[in-house]
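Handout, tutorial session.
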Amino acid sequence: MTEITIVTQTQVLAMFGPAFVTGHLISRHGLNRILLTGAGLMLIAALIGAFAASVPVYVLSRLCVGIGWNFLFVGSAVLLSTTHRPAERGKVQGLNDQFMFLLVTIACLGAASALKRFGWQNLNLLAGASVLIAIAALVRMVHCQQRAR
């Protein structure tokens, strides 16, 4: 139980602790770099999680997933706010939040059955594959932005 507590606390702190500086990091290093760094951390977390054999290594995985989540969550909110007119932003943000929390609810309800069906290693590899898709979309977005300039 002590090890589970440490792992959980590490992830929660890594998810919300960086929020105090993520905005500053975005303004200093750019939104795209923060988004790609967050996605990269999530990919590292999935790979470490799939093959971790000890608690300290698994804690590192949860640290990566927490910081990666924070960078992607805050960065995506900034990205969303820059893609719509001011009059639309509130409605779009509300719709985005509804959709996101619906998916989170479905994922939470299906987590135990997915774990039982696929196993821990395969679930992490599946998460890594979905992060690769997100990275490909981010790279394409950056490429399109550079072309538009």
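The second record follows below. Compare its token runs with those of the first.
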Amino acid sequence: MRQGAVGQVRVVRVDGRELVEKRFADPVRHDTEVQALRALAGSGLPVPELVAVAPGSVLMTLLPGERVDGLDASRQIAGIGASAALLHELHRLPPPTGLPGPPDDARTIHRYREAGGPPLPLRIPPASGRVLCHGDWTNGNLLLSGELVSGVVDWEAAHVGDPLRELSRAAYGASRDDPRRGEALVEAYGADPADVRVWLPLHAAELWLWFREAGPPEYLDRLTRELRSWPA
């Protein structure tokens, strides 16, 4: 299977049944994914079902569909837009106890400035609530079958946090190569675009730090150029 940035994922056959095995280097991410999937069992959301849990790995059901980030432009827009209803539904579920809290935005701002990132209008917007968040709602973690989102995978970054922050992060990531994708998500979710935009500098700073520490240099160079022309 196509790999993400953190876990190792492969399809395995167990007793004639195709399952997904995911291995984790970070025990916190392992435990978070397990707790989130257990909390979401029976919720109606299209998430994997846990089959077996072992230290450092999990076995779960293989969901149908294609990764949205591998589809053509029009289907990517349709897929991220269709996912908004599921994201909204997720944010209405009672968050389970024990999940990590929200990302430390104050620390992100401090690290970004200490690292010499391009000037950004960084601030932490007022909280709009505390809900169950996926933590990495991207086209790479959504599966599409026809017109329906048939799977939402990779729950190792799940946490209890701000719904508008999560929506904004998803929209920022979706818009990187095609602004229409982010617009489709925000519109279908039903949020005020102005409320979403106030979070964008934080997500840009997060991404810049990620590229600086782990991403290819050309990605960091491209993003640095973009951030130098960020609107005041």
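Points raised in discussion: Helices lie at 27-40, 73-92, 105-114, 163-175, 179-189, 193-197, 200-213, 217-228.
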